[in-house]
Design a protein that fits this description.
Layout lengths: L5 H12 L5 H22 L8 E5 L5 E3 H15 L4 E6 L18 E9 L10 E9 L9 H4 L8 E7 L3 E6 L4 E7 L4 E6 L10 E3 L10 H12 L10 E2 L5 H11 L2 E4 L12 E2 H14 L3 E3 L16 E2 L1 E4 L1 H12 L1
Parallel strand pairs: 3-4, 10-11, 10-12
Antiparallel strand pairs: 1-2, 4-5, 5-6, 6-7, 7-8, 8-9, 12-16, 13-15, 14-16
Helix pairs in contact: 2-3, 5-8
Bound molecules: 2,5-anhydro-1,6-di-O-phosphono-D-glucitol and manganese (II) ion (2 copies).
2,5-anhydro-1,6-di-O-phosphono-D-glucitol binds next to β4.
């Protein structure tokens, strides 16, 4: 099948903007290369003995998997040398990465990423992914500090994820809709397979870790119990449930067939602020979901409007089909 490669797509998009210098396209190309490398690393997995846990913990106190660290290094390596990026930060690093002096040249962009999302699934052969978010680096800043990264999600220039599933896919937004590309392994190229992805406004499928039910707040309790009542209940329809425990896989499913995904606030997460990280999980996914016609909220505010206070800040997340998110957000108001 002959299709549009991601490079061709990006260059054509760039032409539409007119003023673009091509730097951004090159930057994205390096991210694409990193995702291809990660796809190979994740695929080889057990064959090269990289499925295990490490002794180390990341800043979130989570035990790191070998592949968390390997994929983090791949992303840093692929993106540090070209000079477009002024700074990088990731789930797996306490502080922003110090780009070596020899590569620094007034980069315009900041890159935030979760190199391996859903890593608890990696050794059981369930889909995992990579999430990234690109911001402008504040003018005149050559060595960005944490505060330079703390920009609300509305300021993202681009967000995307790679899903290492039954096929490898890359899904991107630059604020003009959402497009999906599948990796053709023989060609080594991502090909546009899902142009202008749109999330259906209505759904009867939700995704939540039900084992946390007793810790949830009242609005979420009400929402889920009403879903479970099915056709006989107030919602008047039967619901289906999915939980992959890889946010990338859940968001991808929602982009394809709709749904509501949530990792809501619960009483054991209260001190942490939530489960998912704002800067490299919630913000990029919210940007993508909104660009595909969906909605994303903490329950009490739009995620993209949050003024971040920390690189590893956590937030409650409710996202997906617009009308369904509207129902649950409505319950938070009453
Ligand atoms: P990560 O692997 O990057 O730490 O993220 C895992 C996240 C997210 O992808 C997923 O939705 C959630 O954690 C799963 O949480 P549970 O283990 O509580 O189901
Ligand atoms: Mn993650
Ligand atoms: Mn991760």
């Amino acid at each position: 099948m002959h299709g549009i490669t991601i490079t061709q797509f990006l260059i054509e998009e760039q032409r539409k903007v007119g003023s673009a210098t091509g730097e951004f396209t090159l930057l994205l190309n390096h991210i694409v290369t990193a995702c291809k490398r990660i796809s190979c690393a994740v695929n080889k997995g057990a064959l090269v003995g990289t499925m295990g846990n490490l002794e180390s913990e990341n800043i979130q106190g989570e035990t790191q998997k070998q592949l968390d660290v390997i994929t983090n290094d791949i992303f840093l390596e692929a993106n540090q040398w070209a000079g477009y990026i002024a700074g990088m930060a990731s789930e797996e690093m306490d502080d922003p990465y110090d780009i070596p002096e020899k590569y620094r040249q007034d980069g315009k962009y900041l890159l935030l990423f979760d190199p391996l999302d859903g890593s608890s699934n990696v050794n059981v052969n369930i889909s995992v992914g990579t999430i990234f978010s690109i911001l402008h680096s504040p003018q005149g800043v050559t060595n960005p500090k944490v505060e330079d990264f703390l920009q609300p999600g509305t300021r993202q220039v681009c967000a995307g994820y790679a899903l290492y599933g039954s096929s490898t896919m890359l899904v991107l937004t630059t604020g003009h809709g959402v497009n999906g590309f599948a990796l053709d392994r023989e060609m080594g190229e991502f090909i546009l397979t899902n142009p202008d992805m749109q999330i259906p406004a209505d759904t009867h499928e939700f995704a939540v870790n039900m084992s946390n039910q007793r810790f949830w707040e009242a609005p979420v309790q009400r929402y889920v119990s009403e879903c479970l009542q099915g056709e006989e209940g107030v919602r008047g329809k039967d619901f289906n449930m999915r939980w992959v425990a890889s946010m990338v896989a859940e968001v991808h499913r929602i982009l394809i067939r709709g749904g509501l995904f949530m990792y809501p606030m619960d009483s054991k997460l209260r001190d942490k602020g939530g489960k998912l990280r704002l800067m490299y999980e919630a913000n990029p996914m919210s940007f993508i979901v909104e660009q595909a016609g969906g909605a994303s909220s903490t329950g009490r505010e739009r995620i993209l409007d949050i003024q971040p206070s920390g690189l590893h800040q956590r937030v409650p997340v409710i996202l997906g089909s617009k009308n369904e998110v509207g129902v649950l957000v409505g319950y938070h108001r009453t």
